[in-house]
Each structure stands twice: as C-alpha cells, then as structure tokens.
Amino acid sequence: MLLHSRTKLKKPSPPFSAISSLLNPAFFASLSLQHQFPDPSFTSSSPQFDNNLTPLKSIPYRSYPNAESSYRAPSYSNYASLLKSCISRKAIKPGKQLHAQVFVTGFGFNTVIATKLVNLYCVCDSLSNAHLLFDRIPKDNIFLWNVLIRGYAWNGPYEAALQLYYQMFDHGLVPDNFTFPFVLKACAALSAIEYGREIHKHVVQAEWEKDAFVGAALIDMYAKCGCVGSAREVFDKILVRDAVLWNSMLAAYSQNGHPDACLSLCTDMVSAGLRPTEATLVTAISASADNAALPQGRELHGLCWRQGFESHDKVKTALVDMYAKCGSVKVARILFERLGVKRVVSWNAMITGYAMHGHATEALNLFEEMNRVAKPDHITFVGVLSACSHGGLLEEGRMFFEAMTRDYNIDATVQHYTCMVDVLGHSGRLDEAYNLIMQMKVVPDSGVWGAMLNSCKIHGNVELGEIALERLIELEPEDAGNYVILSNIYAQAGRWEGVAKLRKLMTDKRLKKSIACSWIEVKNKVHAFLSGDTSHPLSDEIYAELERVGGLMKDAGYSPSTGSVFHDVEDDEKANMVYRHSERLAIAFGLISTPPGTRLLITKNLRICEDCHVAIKFISKITEREITVRDVNRYHHFKDGVCSCGDYW
Known about the structure:
Elements: H1 2-6, H2 19-23, H3 25-34, H4 76-89, H5 92-104, H6 111-123, H7 127-134, H8 142-155, H9 158-170, H10 179-190, H11 193-205, H12 212-224, H13 228-237, H14 243-255, H15 259-271, H16 278-290, H17 294-306, H18 313-325, H19 329-337, H20 344-356, H21 360-371, H22 378-391, H23 394-406, H24 414-426, H25 430-438, H26 446-459, H27 462-475, H28 480-492, H29 496-508, E1 517-522, E2 525-530, H30 539-555, H31 571-579, H32 582-593, E3 600-604, H33 610-623, E4 627-630, E5 635-639, E6 642-643
Parallel strand pairs: 3-4
Antiparallel strand pairs: 1-2, 1-3, 4-5, 5-6
Helix pairs in contact: 4-5, 4-6, 5-6, 6-7, 6-8, 7-8, 8-9, 8-10, 9-10, 10-11, 10-12, 11-12, 12-13, 12-14, 13-14, 14-15, 14-16, 15-16, 16-17, 16-18, 17-18, 18-19, 18-20, 19-20, 20-21, 20-22, 21-22, 22-23, 22-24, 23-24, 24-25, 24-26, 25-26, 26-27, 26-28, 27-28, 28-29, 30-32
C-alpha cells in the first residue's frame, strides 16, 4: 500500500474490453486454439514448443490462418500499460493471458515487465505464481523484492517475508523506506519482537528512522508486540509527523489498554494543528468507551460534527459503542437508528451495549431484527450469549449456543464458551458448566476458568472452586484476584484454615490483591476513592453524608449484609468495613456535589459487593436519584430502589 502511495500512477488503461483489440482478437484466438501457451506457473525456463515440436518463437506470424495481415505486435509500453491496469483492478484472468503473451513475444524476462507480473500475482493473492516467476528472473531490482515481501506481509505466510528480507542482503541489495514497513508488518503479525528490534537497528543504520512511513511501521510493530514504551520512543524521535504517524501512536495506546494516554495524545495532535482523520476519531472514541469517559466522548462527538465526520458511518458506529459503554444506552440507540448503512459491526455494538446494561430482552429483539437484514457473525453471538448471561436466560442461552453452530455454521470460540459457562454457572448448573469445559473443542483459557470460579463463589461450591483455581494458577500464576476469590469461598463456608493457607501462599509468592477503587466525575474533574479513604479534601462532609443517608436507610429497613467481608472479626467491625466501601464514598461525594435529582455515574475497578448493591438500591429510592455503577463486569442502573440487573449478576 505504501508502495503505491508513493508511485505516481497514470490514469487507468482502457477497460478490459479494449485488451482484445490491442492484442488483435484473431491472433489471440489462434494462439489459444492451436498452441500451448506457457502457463504463468511454469516450472522450467526452457523454450516452449507447439504440437509439432517447433519452437513457438520461430513460427512466423503468417502460419496462423485466421490472423489479420494488418496486425502489429504490441510494444513494451502496451504491455506495461495493460499490466498496470490489471494490477489496479486485481484482474488475474486477463493478467495471466498477458503473461503468456509477453513470454511468447520475448518480453517475459524483461525486468520491468516481470516485476509488474510479480506485482499482479501478489495483489491477486496468487503468491505461489509470484514466487515461481520471482525465482526465474534477475533479482537486482529492489522494487521486485519489495513487491514480493509486501505480498507475504499482507497475505502470509509471514515467515516468508522475513526470509526474503534476509535473502536480499545475499544479493547485495540494501532495504529502502518501502522494504522496512512491509517486513515490519510481518513482524507485527508474528509478534516477532526479536526480529523487529533487529530490523529497527537496520532502520537506524540506513538512516530511515525519522521517515514518517517507516516510523509508523515501527510503532505498529512495537504496539502489536505489547511494547508501548518502545513505540513512544520511536514517535518522539520523529519531529515531522503526519496524521498516519499520530494515528499509529494513538492506536498503540488504545490497543494496549492505555485509554488515558490515547485521549491525551489526541488532544496534543489537535493542538499541533493537525486535522484529525476518520481513523483518529474512531480510535479516540474507542478509548473513551474503554475508559467509560463520557465527557471526553461527548467532546469528541462535537469534534466529529465540527470537522464534518458525523455522517461517516464508521465514526457513528464508534459513537454508538462509546455511548453504550459509557452508560447512555438510549443515546446509543438513537445514533444507531440514524446510521445510513447498518453494517454487522454496527449491529454488534448495539447488541453488546444492551447486554452490558442487562437489557437482555432488547438485545435479543435487536438480534431478531438483525437476522432479517444481515448475517450475524461470531461477535454477534458473544453479545447474544452475554445478554443471556446477564439476564439469567438459561434456556435461551442454550438455544442460541446450539443454533450458532447448527444454523449459522459458526464454530464456538473461547469467548462463546466463557459466556455459556457463565450462563450455566450463574443458574446454579455448576456440574453442567464443568462438563461443558471438559468437552470444549478449543483449549479453555483463563476467561473460561474465571467464569467457573466466579460461579463457584456465587453458589459456595468449594470443590469445583479448588479445581478452577488450580487451572487458573497454571494459566496466570501472578493474578492475585483468583486466590482472593477462592479465599472468599473458603470464608463463606467458614473454612478459615483454607483462608489462612491461601494468604500464606500469596505472601510466599509476593502477590497482593487488587485495591478496590471507585471514581466519579463532577464538573469535568475525576474524584477517586479507596475503601476507607480519608484523603479527599471533603472527607468530613462525605462521611457526614454517609451517616445521614445511613440513618434514613436503617429507618427504611436496611440491614447490612456482612457476607462480603471475609475476615474473622466481629460483626460490628464487618459492618463498619462495608460502610466505608469505595463506591459508597463516591456516591456520597456525588450527593453533596451535585444538584438534587442529578444522575450519578460511578465506575469501580472490581465487582460490586452484595451489600453495596442492596445499599445503593435504598440510596436511589431515598434520595430520588438515578445511580449508575459500572463495575468490572457490567452496568447496574439503580432507580426507585430497583436495579436493572434484577439482582442477577
């Protein structure tokens, strides 16, 4: 792609209806009927013969009975122009005909013509033919190597691109600013960081490190290999940056779980005077969605409108996804309905959005609507099964899981199995969930066993919980959260010796549990709270509000549930610990910092605990507030003492 972007192409050649007239139909027909053309996938460079063993090149033109006496053989420029047209249109059939013709007329080993033929086969994903021809022509042309390396970098096998790159040195050629982006793309596809770093050294030695295209390729390679810091170092060394380079760095942050850095860099890009592209906005909007940053998402929505991108369906689909993930599912649906063309990715964004919010009925209704106009893919069914999981729809989940393979020919992936294990586990079918894992056609990952472990926690199943933790320790031994969940299962069962054993194991491995944190944004400023936090400037007012609301809750019938406190301490101490949970502190701050009736949006890095879930239902009714909590798994919408999850999460 980069190669073509740098090459000034003339207008396309005449349509392919003109090819036959340029080559003379009678001559072309006579050749195809009477003689054996060399196939482009030939295996020998020896002369080609007719049925009478006469070399084709020695047969005079007059030997063809139907040939027109006025025919003149096409020139080099004719072939070059026609091949260029075939390449631009990815027309493999007329391209093969031209290949046979140029071989017969003596241009088959012309470096420029042969390179164009290799290029044609590459862009038409016929790499076997491309490589066969490549092996039989002179290789002193860097453009030829770039064409074939690019073909493998685009279509695979990616290892072949790397092999060609190193073979190039044996022919005395030096990589240029087109070679590096192509071979780095292959490194990115393979996550081959060691090769990528070595090629980076070659880039520096060749003095191409400050080239924008090469820099963008380096950034992408490091990002795909998870080395965001190295990507940023490359970015910072390039002083003249275009939109492609900025977009590469934005994507590096977004794809590696750094949404804040992505949004900050997007601000820097606009401040530097560069007009954002569609790719810029889609990446930044996606970062807002991942960060549940509704204010920044709204700002980007305004920027889309000011820059004239609001009519772009890709941008609008990103906005649908952002509003759904940021808690504004109604706004997301309005934007979804305004899409000019609803692509599969658009339907998936809306279905998944409904699933996140526990609106299972809406998600399944939308799936039925989608079925009438578009073909669901594997991501669609992840959303559908997730909706069944969050809505407690056991039978519907089973039905869709079976129909996915039977009716839609979609093989179940680990994501589908994770959802199904969650559906069965939440419904108390733990043995059935375990049997499903044992029968999986793909290797269970940490998501599958994590769903099993969480289900064991909900239902207090110690035996299956222990099995799930054993598998999780094999897959992700450094994740302290898994140990904590089984510790909580032991505590629920009163098995304090098991709790002590796991804590010792965590201490020996130097593992620390994740600290619960909740945050709320008020007047464009984010306020974060830890459990028992007293560091906020308004800490006294926050705890006073908790005392006031707590008294009203008690009068309304609230009684603390201390089952979520897994410490061997007195009940009063447990109640005090629950009372100071981070989400309650964030809510109390929101109550004293916003006008009555204002909707509160709280984000928490862990799963909301059972007692806080009950308490927030009371708070929403007492204060007449709509309170939305986004925890690590889903959204909870509290209003008038009821949660949208139906107490099923």
